[in-house]
Structure formats: C-alpha cells, structure tokens
C-alpha cells in the first residue's frame, strides 16, 4: 500500500513544475509543494540505490547514491549564488553535512532491521575527511570573523583551500572505491532486481527532476523565511539542507528498514564527506563564473561540523551501533538545529 501511495505521489513533481510556470501561486505555497514533491523522489532514488548496490556492494552503492543525491545541492547552491544569497549557500552546505551524519545516520540506525552493522573502517575514513575539511576551512573562515566576510581576499584564499580539498577527495575516494571493489563478491542475477544500467538510469532521471524542484525551492526561500519569522540562515541550514538532501535521507532510511544498515550508513557518511570535501570546494570554484564565493563559515557552523564528526566517531568506536545510538544522534541534531536557530543571520 505504501509503495502504491509513493508511486502515485511521484505526480507531485510535474504538478509542482506546472504550478510554478502556469499558476499564480504564492512563494509559501510553492515552497511547501516543492518540499512535498521531493519526498517520493527521495524514495525512488532509494529504490534505485538498493538495486544498484545489489550489483556493486554497499560501499560503491552508497557512493553512487551520494553522487546523484548531492547533485541537487550543487544546483541549489549555484542558483542561490546567482541571487546573491551567500549566507544561504554556506548554511545549506554545512547543514547538509551535519544532517547526513547525524539525522540520516540516526534515523537509519533507529529504524534499521536485521543483523547488519556499520563498516567501521569505511566510516572512520569518511568522518576523518569531514574533520580534515573542518580544519582546512578554518584558513578562510577565521579572517572572516573580523571585517567584511565577503571580501575578495577571502574568496581568493578559499580558491586555494578548495583545490587542496578536491585533491584530498579524489585521492581518498579512489582508495575507498578500490577497497570496496576488492571486498565485493559479484552478485548472482536475482529475480526482482533491476539491471545496473536501469538502476543508474532511474537515479539520473530522478536527480534531474529533483534539480527542477530544487530551483523552485530556492526561488521561494526568502519569502517563506520572512513569513515564517525565521532567519535565512536557519531555513538554509536546517530546512533547505534536509529537503535538498531528501534523496540521501529517504534512500538511507528505506534500505536500512529493509535490513541493509551497512548500505544506509555508507549513504549517510559518504554523502556528508562528499559535501565537505567535494561539494563545498566545487561550489567555491564554480562560483567564479557567477560571483566569487568566500568560504567564510561562522564558528557555529565549523563547531557543528567538527563536533558532530567526533561524536559520531566516538559512538561507532565505543560500541556496536543500535537503535538507541540512532536516537542519540537525532537528539544531537536537534541541539545543533537549536544552535542554528539561536545564531540567526550574521550580524
């Protein structure tokens, strides 16, 4: 029954796009409609990921999901830069990392079934990348805490930092994929599973549709934040980060509930790491084609990145993750969201 409902709800995506072009809906209505339209798309991406992982193993399957799932986030960021919403860009990126490693992993562990655990070696690599990114991002961030955070000199330093992070990402990802490929035993063809090309094709189509919905979301964010009496930063770091990463959120929980917790954890952690060491520097570099983006993250953002990574690593190291661990991570995310709410927009 739930599957049929979600399949029917896929119609919300073309309905949202049509409403944006043909109907005179307000920004608040469009924001809500776009957010709802992303839910069944997330489920579909989760379905495709599970089928792809049957052929590739959980490590590579999680990487595929993270790559396709983070594409809308890249589009959201570039659209926001074009509209001069730099605080929205930085907030959505840091909120995306924190949301993946706390909220997505938390819900995956909370609703996970079966006996599968978390690949600790892989998890520590992804978390280590996020910690490394946090330390490197201090280079452009600290000078921005005094004076104009958008000044050109910080954007220039951000370019150098971005290049370093991309080199780190390519090197570690290449090693991780080789490791997972060596560990994976090719699966026998099984009834009910899509072929790998079909699974990747569905992922690609769902991602493209998600990108269109994301554009509508960005166009309506400022009005929504104003009418909801919320800061642009909070809406970006919490609401847009969750909605923009609906693919990973929904996909991870779906596969975890079906007993594939290892795959769900790979989706959550690899996606968070990919945002930190690939998406953030990629946005900073591509932004030069539009308007240079300074990676002038605030202390609350960097504290959330580094602190969340260390807490997750400690919980995974100290014990076998359980539903209680998931509940702790969700509670921690609520605390981070509260800190973002209190921080508000940059003064």
Structure write-up:
The structure is a single chain. It is built from 14 helices and no strands. The termini are far apart. Helix 5 packs antiparallel against helix 6, helix 7 runs antiparallel to helix 13 and helix 10 (232-244) runs antiparallel to helix 14 (323-343). Helix content is 81%, strand content 0%. It has one domain: A middle domain of Talin 1 (Up-down Bundle), CATH 1.20.1420.30. The protein is globular and about 55 Å long. It has 347 residues and is mainly alpha-helical.
Order of helices and strands: HHHHHHHHHHHHHH
Number of individual domains: 1
Strand-residue proportion: under 5%
Helix content: over 70%
* Cα-atom radius of gyration: 19 Å
Cα end-to-end separation: 49 Å
CATH topology: A middle domain of Talin 1
Low-confidence runs: none
What can be said about the biggest beta sheet? none
Topology:
Elements (H helix, E strand, L loop, with lengths): L1 H8 L2 H11 L4 H30 L1 H12 L1 H12 L3 H26 L8 H25 L7 H32 L12 H32 L4 H13 L1 H12 L3 H26 L12 H20 L4 H21 L4
Helix pairs in contact: 2-3, 2-9, 3-4, 3-9, 3-11, 4-8, 4-9, 4-11, 4-12, 5-6, 5-9, 5-12, 6-10, 6-11, 6-12, 6-13, 6-14, 7-8, 7-12, 7-13, 8-12, 9-10, 10-14, 11-12, 13-14
Explain briefly what this protein structure is.
This protein has 347 residues and is mostly helical. It is 81% helix and 0% strand.
Give structural attributes.
347 residues, A middle domain of Talin 1
């Amino acid at each position: 029954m739930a599957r049929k409902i979600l399949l029917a709800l896929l119609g919300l995506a073309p309905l949202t796009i049509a409403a944006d072009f043909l109907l005179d809906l307000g920004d608040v209505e469009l924001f809500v409609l776009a957010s709802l339209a992303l839910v069944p798309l997330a489920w579909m991406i989760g379905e495709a990921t599970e089928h792809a992982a049957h052929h590739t193993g959980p490590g590579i399957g999680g990487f595929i999901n993270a790559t396709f799932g983070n594409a809308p986030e890249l589009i959201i960021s570039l659209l926001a830069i074009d509209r001069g919403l730099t605080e929205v860009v930085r907030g959505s990126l840091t909120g995306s990392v924190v949301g993946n490693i706390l909220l997505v992993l938390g819900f995956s562990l909370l609703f996970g079934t079966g006996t599968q655990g978390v690949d600790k070696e892989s998890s520590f690599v992804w978390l280590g990348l996020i910690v490394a990114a946090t330390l490197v991002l201090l280079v452009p961030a600290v000078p921005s805490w005094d004076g104009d955070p958008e000044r050109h000199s910080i954007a220039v330093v951000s370019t150098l930092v971005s290049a370093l992070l991309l080199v780190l990402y390519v090197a570690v990802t290449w090693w991780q994929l080789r490791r997972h490929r060596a560990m994976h035993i090719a699966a026998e063809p099984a009834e009910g599973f899509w072929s790998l090309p079909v699974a990747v094709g569905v992922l690609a189509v769902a991602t493209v549709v998600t990108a269109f919905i994301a554009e509508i979301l960005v166009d309506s964010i400022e009005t929504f934040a104003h009418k909801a009496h919320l800061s642009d930063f909070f809406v970006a770091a919490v609401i847009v980060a969750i909605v923009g990463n609906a693919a990973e959120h929904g996909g991870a929980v779906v596969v975890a509930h079906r007993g594939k917790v290892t795959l769900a954890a790979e989706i959550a952690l690899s996606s968070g790491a990919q945002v930190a060491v690939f998406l953030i520097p990629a946005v900073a570099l591509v932004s030069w084609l539009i308007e240079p983006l300074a990676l002038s993250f605030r202390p609350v953002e960097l504290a959330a990145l580094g602190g969340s990574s260390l807490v997750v690593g400690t919980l995974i190291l100290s014990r076998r993750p359980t539903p209680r661990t998931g509940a702790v991570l969700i509670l921690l995310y609520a605390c981070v969201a509260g800190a973002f709410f209190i921080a508000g927009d940059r003064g």
